[in-house]
Amino acid sequence: MIRRILLSIYILFLSVTLLSAQERAHVAGKVIDAHTKKGIPFCTVQLKDLKKGGYTDADGTFKLPKVLVGAHELVVTRTGYSPFTKNINLTENGILNMVISLKESEVELDAVMVIGESEETKMEKQGFASKKIDTEKVAIQSVELNTLLDQTSGINVRQEGGLGSRTKYSINGLSGNAVRIFIDGVPMEYYGASYSINSLPVNLIESMEVYKGVVPVTLGSDALGGAINIKTKNAKKNSLDFSYSMGSFNTHQVALNGSHRNKKNGFTFRGSMFYNYADNDYEVWGKDVTVADPNTGRVSEVRAKRFNDGYEAYGTKVDVGFTDVKWADQFFISMVYSDMYKEVQHGATMNVPFGERHYTQGNLVPSISYQKKDLFTKGLDVSLFSSYAMNSRTLVDTTKNKYNWHGDVVGENPAGGETGSPIHSTTDEGTLINRFNVSYALNDNNVFNMSGIVTDYRRTGFNRTAQLGEDTSNDYQNIFKSVIGLSYSNTALDGKLRTNVFAKQYSYTVDALYHTYSGGEYHPLPKESSDTNYGYGIASSYDLTEKFTVQLSAEQAVRLPMPDELFGNGAENGISNLELKPEISKNLNLGFRYGEVYMGDHALTFSTTLFYRNVEDMIQRSVDNRGDYFFYENHPKIISKGIDLQIDYDYNRKLFFTFSGSYNDTRYNNEFTAKGEKDHLYQARLKNAPYLQFNTNMRYDMTELIKSKGQLQVYWNMRYVHKYYRYWEHIGSDNKDHIPTQFVNDIGASYRFPQNKLAVSLDIKNVFNEQVFDNFAIQQPGRGFYFKVSYSIF
């Protein structure tokens, strides 16, 4: 039935494409300071007669695509500068590229209202339930990428501690690896924990794209519950930026980012590096933090500081190649190197503290990439990426000491190892990654796309403390994955109706070799499995009015098991489960967007999404009976439904206020077991999963109050998470174990000096020192003070 509906819709929109596209052109350029010749960010650029416009980005560049040919009046304004006006004449398929100089003005200008669509608005109106997060406005704050994501409607960030701790994401009730993380379109898990969303400073990131549920083919992977695509800065000008942040719990973060381009031959160099360090010695307390009296044996709750949770990471990324040359828009040979050291304070829960367990991880990822628009013929765009990621992880847990939460040695394990057995193991991983994306535009209204990613992952390892018969050095684990997608995008009814129809193929093969030991010999034990699944869907949006858009997206999605889910990860207290099956989910989103509506100096945007997820064999992380290890298991049937919303308010481009909230009702929906018996978990809310949360963010520009040509801003963030059960709500009767309601406030201020070179900020996180929990009641940091300085060298 669904296939027939999709086929009918496809035929309908294919028929509509017979309407020829109107002749259009593009307007692009850069706005610079007439005195310093530096690019000016956040200028308003408007084609006055069309009421079409946008803003300049961080380096002063702008682009207004698909403008009707003919004569127009271009107006550029910026507070503190004299306005610029020019009459332009556009020809068919032409590109008008211009440099505009603005002069400083001492005259107070009336506010100019730009009515047009930003890049964020265009993305949000494409039919996918999506959101674009621009990092430019918060780059000078002491803020992490996870904090920005946690302030977005429908997203819940599950971080198990301070800087560098393990992090999982939940979007509309689906969590863990159902939500995939990408960096510049490449799945981020292949870069390893040392080069991840936890470690990358916000200064190195241009923006983040969030997709809820239905994910476009262009990302080319098996994301089931949604996706987050991180876009790194790729400035093509000469630049060098530095930032340093320091704060509570001995936290230090350093970032350096620069680029150089030779205008004559297009040779381009881009480089970035970071260094992070934190003791994470914040205070914890509660019923999981207990100490036994050595004399009486009485166990009591205590307040203690984490003492084995240190984190250190550093990394660098270098791109060498050419940009904007005749044969390539972008060609790079790149190298990513990163390394990290992480102490492990406890297992899957906080019941038993560890005093010496730790691990290291490093990765080396060479790659080559190529991008070209209008290759061979107009409308044919190609993007290619190939890489081989090499990761090495070493886990050390050999001590015989037992520790309590005061950091005192209180006993001895004769065999060694804080989790019951000694281990000093090294795991080596290698992944070949090939990704392609090819699109062909018949015209402005019709685009075909084919994309895919093929990965070949192999893991080997050995344990230096293994006893006879327990050696694993001859074992290996291998996963081959292939995800191929096709899509057709159509714009019709004078741009009001946008539709994307797509199909995907998901294939994987697991090939593992283990050894058993008997009779004084090792005997091979091979394990093999393979599967192929198909997905399909549609994403469509329609502008009922200029300000009101309706969005509908639906798909059957598939997610293949990840290496750590199948094979475990000892460094992160994970054990293997080779019996995992792929997840299959039917996703449906219905969204409404209204805005941006102007009422004098006031501007308002409202967006909301109703969602439904029907998941078979959902993969969720669980805890073993002792609470030391995680493992992953399939749940036969899970249904998640709910709503998320976001309200954005802007007063006179000075006061910015955002309110976002989400509610999801995610329940175990398997009524009978395989034996035909009533499943006692039927209709239980999903364990260890928040279901109601709100976020507010307020930012106020105080520049005019201090009569400065710099920029002073203050901000306040609030996060509310309603209490939820740590385990299944149907298990137990009285005094069920729950994670309490959390209400966390952050405040701060930043000042950018004139000339936009130097900026400083002060942030206070968790102002009221609330007790904040996450997965299985693991406590997060309390109140912290952070200072950051950013400097643009050139």
UniProtKB/TrEMBL annotation:
GO terms, molecular function: siderophore uptake transmembrane transporter activity
Domain TonB-dependent receptor-like beta-barrel, first and last residues per copy: 313-767
Keyword check for Ribonucleoprotein: no
Matches recorded under InterPro entries: Beta-barrel_TonB, Beta-barrel_TonB_sf, CarboxyPept-like_regulatory, Plug_dom, Plug_dom_sf, TonB-dep_rcpt-like
Stretches assigned to the TonB-dependent receptor plug domain: 141-227
Gene3D superfamilies: Carboxypeptidase-like, regulatory domain, TonB-dependent receptor, beta-barrel domain, TonB-dependent receptor, plug domain
Keyword line: Cell outer membrane, Membrane, Receptor, Signal, TonB box, Transmembrane, Transmembrane beta strand, Transport
SUPFAM superfamilies linked: Carboxypeptidase regulatory domain-like, Porins
One annotated GO biological process: siderophore transmembrane transport
Membrane topology category: Multi-pass membrane protein
Family: Belongs to the TonB-dependent receptor family.
Protein name: TonB-dependent receptor
Species this chain originates from: Flammeovirga aprica JL-4
